């Protein structure tokens, strides 16, 4: 089996472009409102973009910035690329596979038996197939659960 990408190609945009757009629009709105004299008339309105910036920061830290940049299925191991680090994660070294539903972006969390250079958990946004059901199970996660279990049982023999 060759390398097959199982992480979303939109991860780069989610982690880098979306935050720049979010904070850029907030900064532009503050500058435009300041130039129009809004802050002199209603200084309390400055709290709105500050609050939106804080909420954006918290959400991005919790949901987006911890995502691995790329994850490839290489048969008996996963190749994970994140923050300039490449890590080979053997399927037998994964102790749990968890996936979210009804969340954007969807996430798969891999709990590792031994923490590697990227920590004890690897989180990535999987390739997503179109579905009208927001609660549909992720087929990549389901397949990983079966393959991880099989690899761990084979290693135990």
Describe the structure.
The chain is of the alpha+beta class and 157 residues long. The protein has one domain (1-157). It has helices at residues 11-35, 38-41, 47-63, 139-156, and strands at 4-5, 70-73, 77-82, 85-90, 94-99, 108-116, 119-124. The strands form two sheets. The chain has a four-stranded antiparallel beta sheet, with no helix packed on it. A three-stranded antiparallel beta sheet has the order 5-6-7. The protein is elongated. The two termini are 23 Å apart.
How many domains?
1
Instruction: State the end-to-end CA separation.
Output: 23 Å
DSSP summary, beta strand count: 7
Taking strands numbered 1, 2, ... along the chain, how are they ordered across the largest sheet?
A: 1-2-3-4
Fraction of residues in H or I helices: 40-55%
Which sequence of SSEs, written as H and E, runs from N to C?
Answer: EHHHEEEEEEH
Beta-strand content = 15-25%
For the sheet with most strands, the description reads: 4 strands, antiparallel
Low-confidence stretches: none
- The whole-number mean of residue pLDDT values reads 92
Specify the number of helices.
4
Using only CA atoms, what is the Rg?
Answer: 20 Å
Query: Structural class of the secondary structure composition?
Result: alpha+beta
* Principal-axis shape: elongated
């Amino acid at each position: 089996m060759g390398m097959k990408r199982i992480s979303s190609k939109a991860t780069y945009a989610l982690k880098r472009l979306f935050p720049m757009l979010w904070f850029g629009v907030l900064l532009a709105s503050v500058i435009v409102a300041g130039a129009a004299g809004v802050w002199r008339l209603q200084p309390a309105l400055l709290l709105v973009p500050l609050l939106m910036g804080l909420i954006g920061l918290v959400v991005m830290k919790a949901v987006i910035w911890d995502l691995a940049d790329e994850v490839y299925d290489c048969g008996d191991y996963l190749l994970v690329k994140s923050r300039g680090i490449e890590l080979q994660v053997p399927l037998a070294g994964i102790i749990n596979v968890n996936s979210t539903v009804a969340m954007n972006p969807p996430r798969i969390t891999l709990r590792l038996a031994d923490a590697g250079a990227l920590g004890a958990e690897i989180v990535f946004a999987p390739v997503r197939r179109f579905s009208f059901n927001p609660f549909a199970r992720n087929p990549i996660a389901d397949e990983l659960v079966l393959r991880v279990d099989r690899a761990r049982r084979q290693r135990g023999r």
